[in-house]
Design a protein that fits this description.
This protein is an alpha+beta fold. It contains four helices and nine strands. The protein has a single domain, classed as Class I glutamine amidotransferase (GATase) domain (Rossmann fold). The strands form two sheets. It has a seven-stranded mixed β-sheet with strand order 1-2-9-8-7-4-5. The chain has a two-stranded antiparallel sheet with strand order 3-6. α1 packs across α3.
């Protein structure tokens, strides 16, 4: 029962084999089930809850945008402009946004793991690029936002790769911070291999928000 929980994190993976499109089957398993739909709508509507969608979870959250307060401008995530599955470390910049996960992280420029075939933020299908609140974007080697391949693995406008709500409680992101929370998982580090990377701040922020 979601009523017993404060947070939901939807992970990566190929739910339902992405047969209906990335994250669509997963989202429909909720919206087409009256009991689950009611639970999720109630969960999203509570002011003491938060949620993070990562990769396939991001795609699923985007498909649930109609029942997530403040997510109506979010795009649908569709096939990469490269028309390929892209998996590697890419550089991103954390933007100044209301997202509870990125508090105190604005301006971070870091490598992060990406692994997706459908990460293009497609506003032609749904959402509003002018109103969507960006939380993260891909950058080139000079730290500038980019739509160019391969620095931007999916080609999204302005390098967009994460969106959030106005109250910051719900965030959807295509990259995988959980795969690089230790420095040893990054591309290079001079630090102790057991040390935690800056991406651990996401989880610290969530814990701090819960109180």
């Amino acid at each position: 029962q979601l009523a017993d929980f404060t947070g939901v994190v939807a992970c990566g993976g190929f739910s339902y084999g992405d047969t209906l499109g990335a994250g669509i089957g997963w989202a429909r398993s909720i919206t087409f089930n009256p009991a689950l739909s009611t639970q999720f709508q109630s969960f999203f509507a509570r002011t003491d809850t938060f949620g993070l969608g990562v990769c396939n979870g991001c795609q699923m959250f985007a498909e649930l945008a109609d029942i997530i307060p403040g997510a109506d401008s979010w795009p649908r995530f569709t096939t990469n402009r490269s028309e390929r599955f892209e998996a590697r470390l890419s550089q991103v910049e954390v933007l100044d946004s209301p997202s509870l996960f990125f508090q105190g992280m604005a301006g971070y420029r870091l490598p992060i793991a990406v692994a997706h075939g459908e990460g293009y933020a497609n506003f032609a299908h749904r959402g509003d690029a002018g109103k969507a609140i960006a939380a993260m974007r891909f950058t080139d080697n000079h730290g500038k936002p980019t739509e160019d391949y391969p620095a931007n693995p999916n080609g999204s406008l302005g390098g967009l790769t994460a969106v959030t709500t106005a109250d910051g409680r719900f965030t959807a992101m295509m990259p995988h911070p959980e795969r690089v929370f230790r420095n040893i998982q990054m591309s290079w580090t001079p630090l102790d291999q057991a040390a935690l990377s800056p991406w651990m701040d996401i989880w610290r922020n969530a814990r701090r928000w819960v109180g």
